[in-house]
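Run log, item B.
One chain of 172 residues. Sequence copied directly from the ordering sheet:
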Amino acid sequence: MEKRTLKLYNVIFPIWILMFWPSPPVFLLTLLGNLAIDCLVVFLALLALKHPARGAVLKQCWWRVWLFGFLSDIIGALWLAAGLFGAWALDADGAAGWVSDFAMAMTVNPFRHPLALVWTAVGVAIAGACIYFLDRRAFRCVPELDGRQRHVLALTLAIATAPWLFLIPIYW
């Protein structure tokens, strides 16, 4: 009779990696929270515009606004990642002190280095501009909105829902 042996290779790795993988409840909460904020901003902007068909407009455009908001946030995050990876590439040998200071500030606190603060603010602005242009385009599909209303809604969304959290330090 042959004796079977059980080998467990890298058993701890899958468990350990879960710490850095977004958990489904957190991911779902992020999706729903973003949806609620986007819908609230659209509704309040329509309320401020005294638009009579707030519900109809919101019903037609909520998913586009939500999707374009995520796409814009990803574009802003790619800008931040490009700065970070560029800094790592410049400082491959560890000789450039300011580059490593910039990279450290980008990861934990953009207020620690002036260039990191500017780079992060540009990332927020890029995401906000993407939100504006994509949402303005999304509102073309809503016949109840005129050009001024599309502009006001897109601008309000761009300012209110830009990824301002990029600027919040995770460590002082």
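Observations after the first pass:
- DSSP finds six helices and no strands in the chain.
- The helical segments are 12-17, 24-48, 54-90, 97-108, 114-138, 147-161.
Flagged for discussion on Thursday.
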